[in-house]
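User: Please fill in residues for this 743-position structure.
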C-alpha cells in the first residue's frame, strides 16, 4: 500500500492535500486515471481479490496434517495439544471434502469433542458433537460421544436418547454391543432430563428505555443529544445495535467475530475462509448469512425410529436459527471467498465495505444516485484531516471499490463519483465509529492472586458504527457513560440531568486525568476537533491544580502555576471577552450590548500570573522547584521500572518514599503526580508483600481525590483568596465548575 501511495505524482499529491469535499471528484478522477495505467496497482488488486492468491483460503492437506498430529497427541494422552491441533484443522478444513466415509469437518468436530470431554469440558464436547451431527446426522460415534458428554452433565434423558439413536445408526455388531452396554448403565442411573441450549449469542437486556431524547443543534459542537425531561442518575437512555461492526485485528484469535465475546475452547470457524472465529454456530450464521451445513436429504434411519426420537433428532441436527433472523446482518458474506483483502486492509476500510454492502442489500440501491455518504447521515471532518490522511483515504477508497467490484460491479460502478463518495464515508467512519470494549482479567477466573491483587484492563475488541449513538457529543466531564453487551450499545446517565441539558459522553480524555491542553491535544489528534465542552471552554479549577505547585508560605493553601498553564488558561480568559454562553446569540443586539459590557469588566487583574500564588501573590521560583522535583521523580521512575520487572528491592521503595515527601513539599496537594506516586508505592509494597503499608499509601492516594472533592465543594475560593476577581464571579464563563474526578 505504501508503494501505491508513494507512486502518486507530487502534483497530484498536492492537489489531494488541498482537496475539499467539493473538489474530490477532480482528485479522484486524476487518481483513477493514474492508477489505470500503473501495473503495480493492477497487480495489487489481483493479489487482494483473487482467491487463488488468498492465504486465507481453506486447505485440505494442511487440515489433514493437523488432524494427524491431533490424533497422535490424543493417543499419547496429550489432550490439550490434541485439542489445539483439531481446532487448527477445523479452521482450515474445507467443508465439502470427505475423510474416509465421513465429512472431514464432522470428523474433526467429533475428535475435538473427545479431547474436550477428556479435559473435562463436557458442555463444549456436547456442542461439538451436535455440530458434527448437523453435518452428518447418521454419525453413530457422534451420537455416542454426545451421550457420554450428556451423562457427565447429568442430562440422563438426553444421554439415553443419544444412545438409542447411536444404536440405530451404528452398523457394526461390536459397536452396537458397546452402545447397548453404555445404555444399560445410564438407564440404571437415569435421572432428570435437563435441556441444554448451545448458542451463546444473547444481547437481550430488555430493560425499557426510560427517557425520550431529541437531537438538537448546539452552537459549538454541531448536533447533540438532549433530553425532553429531567433524567435521574443511572437511567438507561439509549440502546442500539450497530449499523455495522468489525473485530479489531489484535483480537481476531481471542474474540468472536460476530458478538465480540471471548472465544470458548470449542470455537467454530468460518465456513469458507480461514479468517473469522465464532463462539457458536449461531454467531457464525448471523455473520455469514448461510447454513451451508444443512443436510438436504432425509437420513434413512429416521424411518425406523419412534416419533419422539425423530423429533429429538431433528432438534439436535437442525439449525437453531430462522431465516428471518439471518436478515441483512450477514456482514462477512461478501468478504468470505478466501480472498485476502478483508484480512489485509485496515479495519475501518473493511468496516466501510460492510456499511456499503448492508446499504445495497437493504435499500435495493440501484447505483443511479450514489449518495453513499448519506447512508449514515453523520458528520465528517475531511477538511481538517492531515495531508497524509487525505492521501490514505484516496488510496483506500479506490482499493475498496476494486475489492467490492467482484460482487457489486453493477451497483458500484468503478468511477470517480463513487470513489469520492467512499472517501466521505471513510471520513464519517473515522469521526463517528465507536470502540467496543471488553474487560480483560489477568486471571481468567477473576480471582485475587497470591499478592492479593487482580489486574483488570479494558481492551478495545471491535469498531462499530451506531447511527444514534454517534449523535452524542463529547465532554471531558461526561454525564453519561457507555457500555456494551455483545454488539449492543447501552448509554446510561451518571448524574441527574435536567431537561434540555446536553447528554454527553467521553470520547477518551476526562477532567482529572489530563489538563485542558493535553485533553484538547489528544482530541484534536484523534478526532480533529477542538473540544468546547463545559470543562475545556472555561477556566476550570481542576485543570489549574492538577499540575500546580504549593505556595511558598506554609500557612497559605493557594496555588502556583507554571507559565505553560497560565499562558493557556489566559488565552481562554481572553476568548471569554465574548462570554461562551452568549456566543451563539451574538446576532441579538441587546445581548451583544450586555456581552460587551461584561467584557469590559475583565481587566488585567483577571489574568493568571506564572510563579505567583493565586491566593496571596507570594513568588515561587518555578525553575528551581522543577529541578528538585525532577530528581525526586527519577526515584519514582526507578520504582516503576522495578514494578514492571516484578523485582522490587527495599532500597528502591525507601528512596521512592523519601522522594514522595519532597513532592509533597513542593507540589500542590491535589497535583496528579502526588496521587500517582502514592499509587506506585502502594503497588510496589504489594509486590513486596507489605500489605499494611501498601494500604496506607493507597489510602493516601485516595485521600488526594477525596480531599480534592471536599475542598471544592465546601470553599471553592481557597485557591485564590476571597479578594481575587475569579471568586464569586457572576460571569457564566468563569464560574467554578463542578468537582472533577482524579484518577
Ligand atoms: C460523533 S460526532 C457527534 C455528533 C456531531 N456533533 C454531529 O453534528 O453529527 C463527533 C463530532 O461532533 C463534534 N463534537 C463533539 N463533541 C465536541 C466537543 N466537546 N467540542 C467540539 N466539538 C465536538 C466534533 O465535530 C466531532 O467531530
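Assistant: Residues filled in for all 743 positions:
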Amino acid at each position: 500500500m505504501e508503494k501505491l501511495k508513494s507512486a502518486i505524482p507530487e502534483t497530484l499529491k498536492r492537489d489531494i492535500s488541498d482537496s475539499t469535499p467539493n473538489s474530490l471528484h477532480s482528485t479522484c478522477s486524476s487518481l483513477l486515471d493514474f492508477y489505470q495505467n500503473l501495473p503495480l496497482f493492477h497487480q495489487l488488486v489481483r493479489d487482494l481479490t483473487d482467491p487463488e492468491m488468498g492465504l486465507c483460503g481453506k486447505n485440505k492437506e494442511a487440515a489433514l496434517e493437523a488432524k494427524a498430529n491431533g490424533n497422535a497427541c490424543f493417543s499419547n494422552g496429550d489432550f490439550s495439544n490434541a485439542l489445539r491441533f483439531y481446532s487448527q484443522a477445523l479452521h482450515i478444513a474445507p467443508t465439502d471434502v470427505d475423510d474416509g466415509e465421513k465429512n472431514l469437518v464432522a470428523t474433526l468436530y467429533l475428535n475435538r469433542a473427545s479431547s474436550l470431554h477428556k479435559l473435562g469440558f463436557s458442555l463444549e464436547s456436547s456442542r461439538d458433537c451436535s455440530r458434527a451431527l448437523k453435518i452428518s446426522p447418521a454419525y453413530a460415534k457422534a451420537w455416542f460421544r454426545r451421550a457420554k458428554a450428556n451423562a457427565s452433565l447429568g442430562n440422563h434423558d438426553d444421554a439415553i436418547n443419544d444412545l438409542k439413536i447411536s444404536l440405530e445408526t451404528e452398523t457394526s455388531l461390536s459397536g452396537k454391543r458397546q452402545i447397548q452396554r453404555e445404555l444399560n448403565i445410564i438407564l440404571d442411573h437415569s435421572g432428570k432430563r435437563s435441556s441444554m441450549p448451545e448458542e451463546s449469542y444473547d444481547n437481550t437486556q430488555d430493560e425499557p428505555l426510560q427517557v425520550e431524547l431529541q437531537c438538537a443543534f448546539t452552537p459549538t459542537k454541531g448536533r447533540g443529544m438532549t433530553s425532553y425531561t429531567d433524567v435521574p442518575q443511572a437511567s438507561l437512555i439509549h440502546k442500539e445495535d450497530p449499523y455495522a461492526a468489525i473485530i479489531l485485528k489484535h483480537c481476531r484469535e481471542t474474540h468472536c467475530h460476530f458478538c465480540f465475546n471471548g472465544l470458548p475452547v470449542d470455537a467454530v470457524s468460518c465456513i469458507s475462509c480461514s479468517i473469522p472465529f465464532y463462539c457458536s454456530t449461531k454467531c457464525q450464521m448471523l455473520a455469514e448469512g448461510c447454513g451451508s451445513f444443512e443436510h438436504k436429504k432425509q437420513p434413512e434411519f429416521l424411518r425406523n425410529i419412534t416419533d419422539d426420537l425423530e423429533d429429538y433428532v431433528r432438534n439436535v441436527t437442525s439449525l437453531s436459527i430462522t431465516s428471518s433472523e439471518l436478515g441483512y446482518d450477514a456482514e462477512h458474506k461478501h468478504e468470505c471467498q478466501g480472498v485476502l483483502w478483508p484480512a489485509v486492509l485496515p479495519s475501518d476500510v473493511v468496516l466501510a465495505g460492510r456499511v456499503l454492502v448492508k446499504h445495497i442489500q437493504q435499500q435495493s440501491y440501484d447505483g443511479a444516485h450514489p449518495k453513499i455518504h448519506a447512508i449514515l447521515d453523520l458528520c465528517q471532518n475531511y477538511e481538517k484531516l492531515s495531508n497524509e490522511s487525505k492521501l490514505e483515504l484516496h488510496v483506500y477508497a479506490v482499493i475498496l471499490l476494486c475489492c467490492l467490484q467482484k460482487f457489486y460491479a453493477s451497483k458500484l460502478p468503478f468511477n470517480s463519483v463513487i470513489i469520492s463518495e467512499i472517501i466521505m464515508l471513510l471520513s464519517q467512519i473515522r469521526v463517528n465509529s465507536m470502540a467496543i470494549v471488553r474487560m480483560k482479567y489477568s486471571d481468567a477466573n477473576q480471582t485475587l492472586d497470591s499478592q492479593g491483587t487482580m489486574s483488570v484492563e479494558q481492551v478495545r475488541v471491535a469498531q462499530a458504527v451506531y447511527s444514534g449513538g454517534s449523535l452524542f457529543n463529547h465532554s471531558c466531564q461526561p454525564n453519561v457513560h457507555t457500555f456494551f453487551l455483545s454488539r449492543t450499545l447501552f448509554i446510561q446517565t451518571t448524574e441527574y440531568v435536567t431537561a434540555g441539558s446536553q447528554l454527553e459522553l467521553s470520547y477518551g480524555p476526562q477532567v482529572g486525568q489530563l489538563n485542558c491542553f493535553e485533553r484538547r491535544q489528544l482530541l484534536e489528534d484523534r478526532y480533529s476537533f477542538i473540544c468546547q465542552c463545559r470543562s475545556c471552554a472555561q477556566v476550570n479549577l481542576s485543570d489549574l491544580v492538577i499540575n500546580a505547585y504549593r505556595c511558598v508560605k506554609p500557612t497559605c493553601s493557594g496555588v502556583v502555576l507554571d507559565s505553560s498553564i497560565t499562558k493557556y488558561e489566559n488565552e481562554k480568559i481572553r476568548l471569554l471577552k465574548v462570554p461562551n454562553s452568549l456566543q451563539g446569540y451574538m446576532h441579538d443586539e441587546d445581548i451583544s450590548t450586555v456581552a460587551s459590557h461584561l467584557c469590559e469588566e475583565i481587566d488585567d487583574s483577571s489574568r493568571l500570573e506564572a510563579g505567583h500564588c493565586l491566593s496571596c501573590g507570594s513568588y515561587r521560583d518555578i525553575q528551581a522547584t522543577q529541578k528538585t522535583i525532577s530528581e525526586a521523580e527519577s526515584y519514582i521512575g526507578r520504582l516503576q521500572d522495578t514494578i514492571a520487572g516484578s523485582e522490587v528491592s527495599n532500597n528502591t521503595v525507601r528512596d521512592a518514599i523519601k522522594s514522595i515527601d519532597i513532592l509533597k513539599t513542593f507540589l500542590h496537594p491535589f497535583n496528579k503526580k502526588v496521587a500517582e506516586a502514592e499509587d506506585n508505592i502502594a503497588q510496589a509494597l504489594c509486590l513486596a508483600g507489605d500489605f499494611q503499608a501498601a494500604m496506607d499509601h493507597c489510602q493516601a492516594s485516595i485521600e488526594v481525590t477525596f480531599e480534592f472533592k471536599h475542598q471544592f465543594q465546601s470553599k471553592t475560593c481557597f485557591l485564590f483568596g476571597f479578594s481575587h476577581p475569579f471568586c464569586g464571579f457572576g460571569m457564566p464563563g468563569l464560574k467554578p465548575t463542578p468537582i472533577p474526578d482524579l484518577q
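For context: The first strand starts at residue 98 and ends at 99.
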